[in-house]
Amino acid sequence: MVWGAERATQTKGDSILRGWRLPKFYFVKNAEDEYEVVDGQQRLTAIYEFFASELALAPDSTEQFGGPYYKDLKAKYSDAFDDFEIDYDEVEDATEAELKQFFQRLQEGLPLTSSEKLNSVHSKLRDFCKNLAKHDFLKTSIVVADTRFAHFDILSKAAVTQIEGIEAGLRYDDIKPVFEAQSNFSPTSAAAKRLRVALDFLADTDHGDKPKIKAKKTQAGSTFKKYSGEASPDVLDPSRFVLVQANILSALELDLKNLALPKP
Q1: How far apart are CA 147 and CA 264, in angstroms?
Q2: Beta bridge partners of 88
Q3: What is the pLDDT of residues 80-118, one digit of tens each?
Q4: What is the CB neighbour count within 10 angstroms for residue 180?
Q5: Cβ of 248: how many Cβ atoms within 10 Å?
């Protein structure tokens, strides 16, 4: 038996031959057809070395699969190895600081948030949401801190609701296909204009007028309680948050349709 780093490396080919899912790989796109491995370099190297018959399987797997090297494998196992699909995400437009923080979280075993995963989806809808997440209204008028792409998360859900309708799912597995389908999303589309008009309207309302701001906060609290049954997000069951958020977005969409807004 082989132990330590060598043993861990040998198990990568073994895992693929058994059809076991590997941890996700993360790549950063530096240029056209040029990528850097953010997480998974050792695993990727082991896969290439096994494919080149430079890395042997562990002795306890050799008999089952036909031999220690790729060239020795039984046909059904070499075919399975060739057809194996790895799970990966591609990261674009990230700063060095963001990449460092991203890698640190991966190494610490911290799960990525849905918004961090969405940020790796190559789509013009992703680009639009990231840019609109810098809107002054989100920066100055809400209590949600923009940590771990929180404002991007809000805009992503609002955009999907605009595109797919109020019945759209708002979990990561629901939003990602929309981002992919909207890879050529236009920032001049009707949905994009509605989102910008909504944020502009909210940003230009009642700033600096303390009595009106207090009244707005009271109204916002009442709206939240109406759809959640709780007076504050702090005491809301996390499992219900997405549904409450969808209801509030739907109510906002309905209100905006009833407003005589100026043309953008």
Answers
A1: 30
A2: 25
A3: 888 888 888 777 766 767 776 676 666 666 667 788 778
A4: 13
A5: 16
Pick the closest to residue 142 from 71, 245, 256 (CA basis).
Answer: 245
Find all residues with CB under 8 Å of 146, minimum gap 6, and list them: 133, 138, 139
What is the DSSP annotation of 184-218? Answer: T--TTSHHHHHHHHHHHHHHTSSTT-HHHHHHHHH
Q: Where are the domains of the chain?
A: 4-91, 113-258
Q: CA gyration radius for the chain?
A: 24
Contact yes or no for 58/64 (Cβ under 8 A):
no
Q: Looking at the DSSP assignment, which residues form a beta bridge with residue 27?
A: 37, 90
Tokens 């309207």, residue located: 201
pTM score > 0.85 for this model? Answer: no
Q: Which amino acid is residue 111, in one-letter code?
A: P
Amino acid at 220: A
How far apart are alpha carbons 262 and 32 in whole angstroms? 42
**DSSP character for 171?**
S
Is residue 154 scored above 50 in pLDDT? Answer: yes
Cα dihedral value 83, 89, 93, 98, nearest 10: -140
